[in-house]
Design goal:
Layout lengths: L2 E3 L2 E3 L6 E6 L2 E10 L3 H18 L4 H17 L1 H12 L3 H21 L7 E3 L5 E8 L3 E5 L7 H12 L3 E5 L5 H14 L6 E3 L4 H9 L3 E7 L2 H14 L2 E5 L4 E5 L5 H13 L9 E7 L3 H13 L20 H17 L1 E4 L18 E4 L6 H4 L6 E7 L2 H9 L3 E2 L2 E4 L3 H10 L6 E2 L15 E2 L12 H4 L2 E8 L13
Parallel strand pairs: 7-8, 7-10, 8-9, 10-11, 12-13, 12-18, 13-16, 15-16, 18-19
Antiparallel strand pairs: 1-2, 3-4, 5-6, 6-21, 14-15, 17-20
Length: 490
């Protein structure tokens, strides 16, 4: 496996590689990928800089035509790519197909938006003068993403960046590199000119080189809060635009008037879908005391029936492995912390039964009697671990939900329209679901959070184009004489 630079597949200049392992069976080596250096990044940025000179001049709707074709190719290759993704990062096939569908939707949406990259015009305060504004591309974008959505999350950044006339150097996670190469194949087949999209594999060395390169004008990052904060600090020093999508500790509230079956299905999917490895995963469940005990009893029963397994070899599998040994160790350490803080009513251990012996499987785990000061209530675990807290009132439930350093997603189950709209107003999060789980973003709506989750930008929908464009204001004076603004003309 190689890097993709200027439509060519190239080895790293270092000659070093890393192995991509199947998390459901760590003895299955998917391939060796380049462990790239700053020199490899520089070559990709040079290619992107050259390509930018022409790509930015191609009319936006023509760029959209290419992205529309890319959507068609993603559609054609969906089953093939889903199997590749399941093998390298562990989600079930139903989930990886959904991951690819996000990219398909994003391609089609961005393709149409290339005809709607609207500016704003405004009246001038002076005679015979017109005021206009335009969205302009910025240049080379460095895109660095996590492994849990190997196609969807990169597409949320890459496709709009290309639609706006930028070029891209993409460093995928070293836990999901194969999917990135298929992404490159698809964009190349769609007709993207050489150098417009480039893939550099590697670890933090390659990521740092992208952030540091003077010709990378925008950095789009999805990953941990620790890494994101470091990138933000460096981009601030370098005066670079940066968009951050980081952690979450998302809460689902269930009130006594809720549809209990619906709320139960919501938390099962929100907490254990993608094995809890989503920034939007339901990691906190806040139950009103009136329904707490009966809800927990049914939640434990249904959670215990979830089937863990390899999504490629077990068609019945509902929960896959966690991504790697490092993450497995982290999750198990948090489970031990939780056992000292609260009551473990389900799971709490690794699953090594049968075919899962060589994989990184953790049994769905539920803690009750969780207090707001507990680490498992406050810290992101990024695995199939659910912390349940008891609320004495609606107001208390909102207070618990907001007691977090993060602010990405949130959810409340209630039939009370007044409570629903109060929650919409008062929950501190970038996303709020009413009678739905904390996961389930749609490609045409803004996505992102507040507090420790991000730095104010929103991916998805029309808002993502604010990340990958800059505003140019234009004044046209056809009066034939000097007219002075910012002077007291009154």
């Amino acid at each position: 496996m190689k890097n993709f630079v200027s439509n060519q597949w190239l080895p790293s200049s270092t000659g070093r590689t890393f192995n991509n392992l199947n998390p459901a069976d760590a003895t299955d080596v998917i391939g060796a990928f380049p462990l790239s250096s700053a020199d490899d990044v520089a070559a990709a940025v040079d290619a992107a800089s050259v390509a930018y000179k022409q790509w930015r001049l191609l009319p936006a709707p023509k760029r959209g035509d290419i992205l529309r074709v890319a959507g068609d190719i993603f559609t054609r290759r969906k089953d093939e790519l889903a199997a590749i993704m399941t093998r390298e990062m562990g989600k079930t096939l139903a989930e990886t197909k959904g991951d690819i569908q996000e990219a398909i939707d994003t391609c089609y949406y961005a393709a149409t938006e290339t005809r709607r990259l609207f500016g704003y015009n405004a009246p001038s305060e002076m005679n015979n003068k017109m005021n206009m504004s335009f969205r302009m591309p910025i240049g080379v974008c460095g895109i660095i993403t996590a492994w849990n959505f190997p196609i969807a999350v990169p597409s949320w950044k890459i496709i709009p960046a290309l639609a706006c006339g930028n070029t891209v150097v993409f460093k995928p996670s070293d836990d999901s590199p194969h999917s990135a190469n298929i992404f490159a194949e698809i964009l190349q087949e769609a007709g993207l000119p050489a150098g417009v999209f480039n893939v550099i594999h590697g670890n933090g060395e390659a990521g740092s080189a992208i952030v540091e390169h003077p010709d990378v004008r925008v950095v789009g990052f999805t990953g941990s809060t620790t890494t994101g904060n470091a990138i933000a600090a460096r981009c601030g020093a370098l005066n670079k635009k940066v968009s951050l999508e980081m952690g979450g500790k998302n809460a689902q509230i269930v009130m006594p008037d809720a549809d209990m079956d619906l709320a139960l299905h919501g938390v099962l999917w929100g907490a254990f879908g993608t094995t809890g490895q989503r920034c939007t995963a339901t990691s906190r469940l806040i139950l009103h005391e009136a329904i707490h005990d009966i809800f927990i009893a049914e939640l434990v029963k249904q959670s215990s029936e979830l089937i863990l397994g390899n999504g490629l070899s077990n068609a019945d599998a509902q929960v896959g492995p966690v991504i790697n040994q490092r993450q497995l160790d982290k999750i198990l350490s948090y489970i031990e912390i939780g056992k000292g803080e609260a009551t473990c009513v389900l799971g709490g251990e690794r699953d090594v039964d049968g075919s899962k012996a060589n994989g990184f499987f953790v049994k769905p785990t539920i803690f009750t009697d969780v207090e707001r000061t507990d680490r498992i209530f406050q810290e992101e675990i990024f695995g199939p671990v659910l912390s349940v807290a008891k609320a004495t009132s609606f107001e208390h439930a909102l207070e618990l939900a907001n007691d977090s350093a993060y602010g990405l997603s949130s959810s409340i189950y209630t039939r009370d329209v007044n409570a629903a709209f109060t929650a919409i107003r008062d929950i501190e999060a970038g996303i709020t679901y009413i009678n739905a789980p904390t996961i389930g973003a749609e490609a045409h709506m803004p996505f992102g959070g507040i507090k420790g989750t991000g730095n104010g930008h929103r991916e998805g929908g029309w808002t993502v184009f604010d990340i990958f464009t800059e505003w140019k204001t234009v004044y046209v004076d056809f009066s034939g004489k000097l007219q002075r603004a910012q002077i007291d003309n009154y």
